[in-house]
Amino acid sequence: GYRSRSAYKLKQLDATANLLHEGATVVDLGAAPGGWLQVAQQEVGEAGTVVGVDRQRIDALDGVETVRGDMTEDATKDEVREIVGEADVVCSDMAPNMTGEYELDHARSVHLVRQALEVALDLLAPGGDFVAKVFDGQDLDDLKADIEPEFEYVREVRPDASRESSSELFLVAKGRLTAPVAEGD
Ligand code: SAM
After folding, report:
1. Phi/psi class of residue 10: alpha, beta or left (left: φ > 0; alpha: ψ in -120 to 50)?
2. Whose CA is nearest to atom 11 of ligand 1?
3. Is the pLDDT of residue 114 over 80?
4. How far apart are CA 127 and CA 15, in angstroms?
5. Does 174 participate in catalysis according to the annotation?
6. Which among 9, 11, 77, 133 is annotated as catalytic?
7. 94: Cβ below 6 Å to ligand 1?
8. Does the annotation place 36 within a ligand binding site?
9. Would you place residue 163 in the very low, low, confident or very high pLDDT band (cuts 50, 70, 90)?
10. Alpha carbon separation from 85 to 15, 88, 153 (Å, rounded)
11. Structural domain spans, the chain
12. Cβ 31 under 6 angstroms from ligand 1
């Protein structure tokens, strides 16, 4: 079995958006207790690399490297960059501590996606994919607009397993675009 029911969300995202491949390098942000790590490890196999990051402890998993740290802190981002040269997939299931206050939970969730995006833009190989959970709200369109120029396309996906949380959705950004050559280079 899986360590979390969230595992089924990643399975469905993968089935919908074709994210995980044999041999791929996957970085999973907000990975505890490790359900997504289990799914990713199965799909990339022994030739692949899976790295999980969380501020909570992640119990050891065969074939998975873990980092304990807060993704809003530079020290954690640096540690991840040191471990992973280049990634094929950066995914985030990070969620803020819920207050029940809709606007606040939304704003905090958007902030976490922006942290994940920063790391994704550093690490992703050309053609790589970025997936992040976000709670719906007023800043979603701005967030999406900031991700769009960096990828071939961005879509919103609501896995069946997310139905219990009506405001939860995933932004799936496919195909990291190669940085354009600056004019004058
Ligand atoms: N995908 C995981 C799985 O399948 O087991 C479940 C992830 S759970 C929904 C969200 C996780 O995000 C929590 O473990 C939480 O500690 C983590 N998280 C939230 N904010 C974080 C931050 N700033 N840095 C690192 N992890 C964070």
Report:
1. alpha
2. 30
3. yes
4. 18
5. no
6. 133
7. yes
8. yes
9. confident
10. 26, 10, 24
11. 7-161
12. yes
Residues 169 and 156: beta-carbon distance below 8 Å:
yes
pLDDT tens sequence across 121-138 = 999 999 999 999 999 999
Average pLDDT over residues 75-103: 95
Ligand 1: residue of 2, 93, 113 to mutate (most ligand atoms within 8 A of CB) is: 93
**What does the alpha-carbon distance between residue 88 and residue 49 come to, in Å, rounded to a whole number?**
10
Instruction: Report ipTM (2 d.p.).
Output: 0.99
Tell the CATH topology of 7-161: Rossmann fold (3.40.50)
Q: Is 92:29 a contact under the CB 8 Å cutoff?
A: yes
Nearest CA to ligand 1 atom 14: 32
The owner of tokens 């074939």 is 63
Q: Is 93 known to sit in a ligand binding site?
A: yes
Percent of the chain whose predicted confidence (pLDDT) is above 70: 95
Taking the model in full, what pTM does it have? 0.95
